[in-house]
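Q: Convert this sequence to structure tokens.
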Amino acid sequence: MSMGSTVAAHEEAAREEAARSKRILLTALGILCLALFVVDLAAGSVRIPPLRIPAILFGGDDNPAWVAIVRIFRLPKAITALVGGASLAVSGLMLQTLFRNPLAGPDSLGIGAGASVGAGIVVILAGGAGSAFLGELGLAGYSALALASALGATLVLLVILAISRRLAGTASLLITGILVGYFAGSILALMVFFASPQKVQVYLGWTYGSFAGVTMGRIPVLIGGCLLGFIALGTSPKAFDALVLGDRGAESVGIDVRRLRRRIIVASAILAGVVTAFCGPIAFLGIAAPQGARRLFRSSAHRILLPGSAFLGAFFALLADILSQAAPGGIVLPLNPLLALLGAPLILSIVLRSRSSEGRS
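A:
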């Protein structure tokens, strides 16, 4: 055997070993998410042994109080955290791919604010003056809420995309996203100013972010909306890898860049919009989870990053939901501050790493 063939064989073996280790890591991360899902069902003001959760879920437990707590209250909350965290993470990953920017995400680009405007229009303008609006929504109402939120996210994303073609550099794009977010926030502020006190209270509670507002009857709308967003991606992960190389690089390998860009815009807006409609504006997940996946798997291949980001997004969301119930006295902490504690150090490290790379270049 020649030296060249020996080297090629060693390289092929190394690639297979690296792929195997990534598959093992993905499996371990999925198992960890499943474990956190069970812990989320067991945690709360009423502590339930985690080993009793399977029997409670599948009808083998004889404690009716525990069965009611888990099935009626905690199960939809845990499902919402799982689906919402994964969806926001994939939305953030797609935006980072589209803009070729590690700090792009639904909240940093103002897309979350656009989704909030769409949802806020429905929340504030619908129903009677004194109605507990979110409690009265049926499936049709929540479908309208999700649609309005997705449309608001799409509109902001289209504006950002149009402006980004005239700008160069990460800082300019992020500043533009912040300004667009402020503009959307000013629209919301005016809507809140003219709304009734009852509606304002409902809306402000919604803005804190929570996975607890979705009942089992509304879970199908949440899952269906997010599934639609995943389906909208509808292409091979290799196309996303090519897009990272730039428009010309992607076109040179036969990628229809305009069509792919439209798919990413629609999918990202649907995923971010639907989750925002049901959970309120959730910060940091869309940026932190994809970047965490890149560091954990040491890969830029989307066939790894897509499931890896989804698992990490679900992990962060479930962990934040568990921590929100850890305060003494049965107090439930707001979700966004906890996610900021988890995500802000990672995002700060990305910024510092980027600055140090620019200084060396």
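The mean pLDDT is 80.
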